[in-house]
Amino acid sequence: MKQLIKLTCILGMLFAQMSSAQKSTSPLWLDLIPGKYDVGFKAEFLVDTTRMFPSSDSLPHALKGRPIRVKVYYPGTKQTSSLRMSFEDQIRLYPSNPQFATYNEVLGLRDINLQGQFGPRSDSLMRVLFRMETMAYSEIPIMEGSFPLLIYNLGLDDHQMENSVLWEYLASHGYIVVVIPCLGNSLENKFVHYNSKGLEGLYLDALFALNTYRKKEYVDKERIGAIGHSFGGGVAALLACRNSDVKAVASLDGTINNPRAQKFIDSLNINANTLKVPLLNLYTKAHDKDLTIVESLETPVYEVGFHSASHFDFQNFGLFAHVMGVDDSRVVRRRSSEEGKDIVLGTIGLTKSFFDYYFFEDENGHSFIKGEGTDTERLNELAEFKYR
C-alpha cells in the first residue's frame, strides 16, 4: 500500500511538471538553462550505396545499400502553432518511404526495450516518461546561418535516445547534432561485435553521415566535432584520426580507456601519431581503466575522472532515474540518486563547454573544463580534473 501511495505521489508530481513544461523547460532538463535557439528535430533515412546490407523477406534489395537512420537536433525557429514533442515522439518515427519500414521498426523496438532497461523499471513510470514533453519541435525551420556540426556515436548496441537531453541542450546553444544508430551487418545480425571489425563498421556509418552533412549550407565546415559514449567514444576517436575536418573529440567513458579494448584500438591505429585534435576524456574511476593512449597524446587533453559514476551516468540514465524519484539497484551502493543526476548534468555542461571553447573561443568554457571557478565546486567534489 505504501508503495502504491508513493507511486501515486510521483505520478502526480510528474504530471504537474508536464503541465507547466511549456512555460519553462522540459522536466527532464531539471536546472539546465536553454540557449537562445528553439530545438529542432528530424529523423532522416540515408542509404550508403557503397556498402552492402543483406536482403531478407522483410527487407528487399530495393534499398540498394546500407540504410542509416540519423536523428538530427538543430537550432531552429518554432512556428506559432509548434508544439513540443513528447519523449515517445522521438522514438516512434515513421519514414515516408515504406522501404525503410522494417528497418525503422527494428530500431524503434530496440529504443523502447533498452529505454526500459536503462530507465525506471516500472511500466507506469515508463508511460509517464514517454508522455513527458521534451524541448524539441518536429521539423521546424532551421535558423539562418551556419553552425558547428557534432557527430554523435552511441554505445555498443545502445538505443538512439541514450543522450537526448545532451543533444537538445547542444542544439539550443547553436550546435547541429547528428546521432548515428548502432546496428550490425543486417537485420538478422543486428548486434555489433566488441572488436575492431565492429568499430570499423560503425565508423563507416559515422563517416557517411559526416560526408553527407558537412555539405549542407547550414554547417560551418571549419567547426566539426565528434562525440561518443562507451564504444562510440572509439568511433569518435577514429573519425578524428582519419578525417582532418574533425577538429575536436569528446569521449564519454569511451572505449579508448577500456583495458579490454586496447589491442583492437591499437590495431586501428588510434594513437598519438593519428589523434591530433583536442580531447575531452570523461570517465568513471569506479572501473579499471587504461589511460595509456590518452596520456600519450601530444594535443590538449582534458581528463575528468568521476569517483563513483556508473558507466551509464554519462547518458540520460542517472538523470531520468532522479527525475522519476527512483533508485536503481544496480548503482545504489555506489552513489546516490542525487550524485547520479549531478554526474549527468556535469557531463552535459562539460561537453558543451569543451566545444564552446574550441569552436567559439569561450574562455569561461575553458575554465569550466579545467575545473576552475565557483561554478565547478560540485564537479570538483564528484571528480578529479587533469589538464595538459
Structure description:
Keywords: Hydrolase, Signal. Residues 1-21 form the signal peptide. The structure is a single chain. Helix 8 (292-296) links the parallel strand 9 (279-284) and strand 10 (301-306). The chain contains twelve helices and eleven strands. Helix content is 36%, strand content 20%. It has one domain (2-387): Rossmann fold (3-Layer(aba) Sandwich), CATH 3.40.50. An eleven-stranded mixed β-sheet has the order 3-4-1-2-6-5-7-8-9-10-11, with helices on both faces. Helix 1 runs parallel beside helix 3 and helix 5 crosses helix 6 (231-242). It is of the alpha/beta class and 388 residues long. It has helices at 2-19, 101-117, 123-131, 164-172, 196-213, 231-242, 262-267, 292-296, 317-324, 337-360, 363-369, 377-382, and strands at 38-48, 66-76, 84-86, 133-138, 147-153, 176-180, 219-229, 246-252, 279-284, 301-306, 383-387. Residues 1-23 have low confidence and may be disordered. The protein is globular and about 50 Å long.
